[in-house]
Amino acid sequence: MPGSRTGRPPVQRAARRPAAPRPPRENPFVRLSTRARRAWDRPLTAYYLILGGSLLITVLGLVMVYSASQIKALELSLPGSYFFRKQLLAAVLGAVLLYAASRMPVKLHRALAYPMLAGAVFLMALVQVPGIGMAVNGNQNWISVGGPFQLQPSEFGKLALVLWGADLLARKQDKRLLAQWKHMLVPLVPVAFMLLGLIMLGGDMGTAIILTAILFGLLWLAGAPTRLFVGVLAVAALIGSVLIRTNSNRLDRFACIGATEMGEDGSCWQAVHGIYALASGGLFGSGLGASVEKWGQLPEAHTDFIFAVTGEELGLAGTLSVLALFAALGYAGIRVAGRTEDPFVRYAAGGVTTWITAQAVINIGAVLGLLPIAGVPLPLFSYGGSALLPTMFAIGLLIAFARDEPAARAALAMRQPRFGRKRGAGGPGSERSPRRWNTMRRRAPARSSGER
């Protein structure tokens, strides 16, 4: 055939298939957000966030209490680690309470609601008895329990209101009574106002604000209508404005919002020096223990304004880390409250989350000059055993509720020890034989009975 050297017809080659189009490269930010979303949706995410976040906040708080309180202790002719040792003791006791609360069943938590409320009311009334109650910084809200230890009953009143209010609303929801506004308000609001009255007798406006936030959080979770919610809020705002206008000290605190310079009479001293501490920290701070403001310039450096010392020593990176931990803790609490079907768990988890988040916002907002100085500690972070103990018990509540989710319970049940466990020994009828860990030799095949 012409055109072929061998005389054979040319081989017809198949047409080459066009290459398949390559899939478009996925955006790394989209891939990262997808992975993060999957991680958030895991059953044990809330459990790990609550446990890990609270422990990190507490440990970092111990470090900062030790750094911020040394100068104050030396001024009082005390050892430099005096306040740190007291806070460490409170943290150890709080860890015991956290573990106990995380292992208690929900029924036991509900059974503790009424005794805890009665005990808190009794102690808060005892504060006003002359010779028993103590005044600290102008507020009559402490009880001496012997030696250097003091107790602030109003801190336990927060926990009592959360447990009792959650149990009350859960029982009324089971009976379908929350559709009536009378049952939603009574007796929750009168009891909360009674606690607020006992607190305000001692002049503690900051704790009263936190208790009011817990009350509104419970009403919101119970589905209070907008008119009812706004009505209660208006009454609380009216009472609060009267209490503020009749006290010059509270008026001065409102006047210091956003202040960057002190007045001629020395007003706004604490607020301005808190801003100085944050401003001098820079991006990564001056170094742990190198704060200047704690040397007598910044009042309450280890309690209400410990966040300012944190910003000075650890910088913007340290303060953002603390904010991220509180944000993660708040997200986990909201997730626990939103995914449960038990009304008590929903109200209690929402109440605890409202309590911790509102107190953190009020404290940090005061340090930043965005809110008036309310005199409330930063939860799990500031010095104060009376505030740390009930807060860690409340964290134990959240851990117990997070473990009790059906998906989380199933995930925890599937976990097995990695070492030393015999495989296939899960139950009768298992086909796999257990692995023996006491030998590395291979077993010889079994001989028949006729072999010698």
Can you walk me through this structure?
With 452 residues, the protein is mainly α. It has 16 helices and three strands. A three-stranded antiparallel β-sheet has the order 1-2-3, with helices on one face. α3 packs parallel to α15, α6 (153-174) packs antiparallel against α8 (188-201) and α14 packs across α15 (385-403). The longest helix is centred in the last third of the chain and has 34 residues, at 306-339.
Query: If helices are DSSP runs of H or I spanning 4 or more residues, what is the number of helices?
Result: 16
Average predicted confidence as pLDDT: 86
Describe the global form.
Answer: globular
Q: Structural class given helices, strands, pairing? A: mainly alpha
E-strand count: 3
Element-by-element helix/strand order: HHHHHEEEHHHHHHHHHHH
Q: Quote the beta fraction.
A: under 5%
Main sheet: strands, sense, barrel: 3 strands, antiparallel
Radius of gyration: 30 Å
Question: Uncertain segments of ≥5 residues (pLDDT<50)?
Answer: 422-452
Helix share, percent: 55-70%
Strand order of the largest sheet: 1-2-3
Oligomer: single chain
Distance between the termini: 80 Å
